[in-house]
């Protein structure tokens, strides 16, 4: 049993030595800083969500939302073609002519194929 523990400690030591060779202190510090920033940001969001906004805070948020909506509406207007904004002229609606009866169609075809001599 004692020999197994020594072998286990030896393997653990070699593994840690290998990790230390692969990992630089600067990388670990940067990871710790990034994690701390993410935690601080999450805490700030949590504090905002848990706090009650004053009437002034709520009005400021609504004003900012309205401004964002205006900007988005302006952006969308730029993407759309311009439509006429004046009054369109009245136009008489013309009903389509009725289709000629089958007999009339046949007569018309014959007269095209056999012109009358004068």
Low-pLDDT parts are none
The fraction of residues in strands falls at under 5%
Approximate helicity band: over 70%
SSE string: HHHH
Q: Find the count of extended strands (DSSP E, 2+ residues).
A: 0
Please, what is the oligomeric state?
single chain
Q: Cα distance, first to last residue?
A: 129 Å
Largest sheet: none
Average pLDDT, all residues: 81
User: What's the total helix number?
Assistant: 4
Structural class: mainly alpha
How does the overall form come out from the CA principal axes?
elongated
Radius of gyration: 42 Å
Give a description of the structure:
This protein has 118 residues and is mostly helical. The protein has four helices and no strands. It has helices at residues 2-22, 25-50, 55-79, 102-113. It is elongated and about 115 Å long. The N and C termini lie far apart (129 Å). The relative contact order is 0.03. The model has no long low-confidence stretch (mean pLDDT 81).
């Amino acid at each position: 049993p004692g020999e197994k523990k020594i072998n286990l400690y030896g393997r653990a030591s070699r593994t840690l030595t290998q990790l230390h060779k692969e990992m630089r202190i600067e990388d670990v510090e940067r990871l710790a800083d990034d994690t701390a920033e993410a935690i601080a940001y999450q805490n700030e969001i949590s504090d905002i969500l848990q706090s009650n906004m004053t009437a002034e805070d709520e009005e400021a948020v609504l004003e900012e939302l309205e401004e964002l909506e205006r900007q988005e509406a302006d952006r969308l207007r730029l993407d759309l073609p311009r439509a006429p904004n004046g009054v369109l002229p009245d136009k008489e609606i013309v009903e389509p002519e009725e289709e000629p009866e089958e007999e009339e169609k046949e007569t018309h075809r014959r007269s095209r194929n056999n012109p009358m001599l004068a």
